[in-house]
Design brief:
- It is a single chain.
- Helices cover 40% and strands 10% of the residues.
- The chain has two domains: 1-81, P-loop containing nucleotide triphosphate hydrolases (Rossmann fold, 3-Layer(aba) Sandwich), CATH 3.40.50; 115-242, Helicase, Ruva Protein, domain 3, CATH 1.10.8.
- The chain is built from nine helices and eight strands.
- The strands form four sheets. A two-stranded parallel ribbon has the order 1-4. The chain has a two-stranded antiparallel ribbon with strand order 2-3.
- A hairpin with a 2-residue loop joins strand 2 and strand 3 (48-51).
Length: 248
């Protein structure tokens, strides 16, 4: 006998790794659906909630050249991305390598990580030590995007319309921890924060109309803030052994 009921068939986002190619071509309804799963790690269908897989990672590409048929990403969705990395043209030797590899039979990709290993690495990164002085430095960098004049950079008051959200603070710590782990350290240095600041903070800034008209780029604003907000010199002792999010 037939069972006349709707069957839910889960879509392509229920995987560990989502690659959204040219995400700015997706209409508003698709971007809204992506916003939910990126923010809540779940999808609601017909009054029922379906959790995303673990780990759940989204990487999106965006074509900065074309303006027809594209939809600008809302600030709330941009804020969900940990990093925005600008990919320039390849150098001569890199382009020659692309030609050699892709003009014949393209190489087949091979897995280098498993989902369980990614979860293990994420757990290791979350336990990387962050000194109180480094945590305060992160907060000062973010606050400088909201009230630049209080940090000696009043010229940015007319350039920055909306500063970075608290997600930028969390993102700076998370990215700096991951970078420290890649470098084989179990503690974060101010240089780790500085290395990731442009990619973590730039896409979260909303510049004024005049700044956009003058072709001011967010990464240059972040570089100015990095130059004006002095980094700390951590003193490692037992009286300051807390991380930004609690005891180690």
């Amino acid at each position: 006998a037939k069972n006349e009921e709707f069957e839910i068939e889960l879509g392509p986002v229920f995987v560990n790794f989502v690659l959204a190619d040219e995400i700015n071509r997706a209409p508003a309804k698709v971007q809204s659906a992506m916003l939910e799963i990126m923010a809540e790690k779940q999808v609601s269908i017909g009054g029922k909630t379906y959790p995303a897989k673990k780990p759940f990672i989204v990487i999106a590409t965006q074509n900065p050249v074309e303006s027809e048929g594209v939809y600008p990403l809302p600030e709330a969705q941009r804020d969900r991305f940990l990093l925005k990395v600008d990919v320039p043209y390849p150098k001569g030797d890199e382009e020659l390598d692309i030609l050699r590899r892709m003009s014949v039979k393209p190489p087949a990709p091979e897995p280098v990580l498993t989902p369980d290993l990614v979860l293990e690495l994420q757990d290791m990164a979350s336990n990387v030590f962050v000194h109180n002085l480094v945590a305060e430095y992160v907060v000062r960098l973010v606050l400088a995007t909201r009230t630049p004049s209080e940090f000696g950079i009043p010229d940015l008051d007319s350039i920055i319309q909306i500063g970075c959200s608290p997600r930028a603070t969390l993102g700076l710590v998370a990215a700096a921890r991951a970078l420290a782990l890649i470098h084989g350290r179990d503690y974060v240095l101010p240089t780790d924060v500085q290395a990731v600041a442009r990619d973590v903070m730039g896409h979260r800034l909303v510049l004024s109309f005049d700044a956009v008209a003058d072709n001011v780029e967010p990464r240059h604003v972040v570089e100015r803030i990095l130059a004006m907000v002095p980094p700390p010199t951590p003193v490692w002792n037992k009286s300051q052994n807390e991380v930004a999010t609690g005891p180690r």
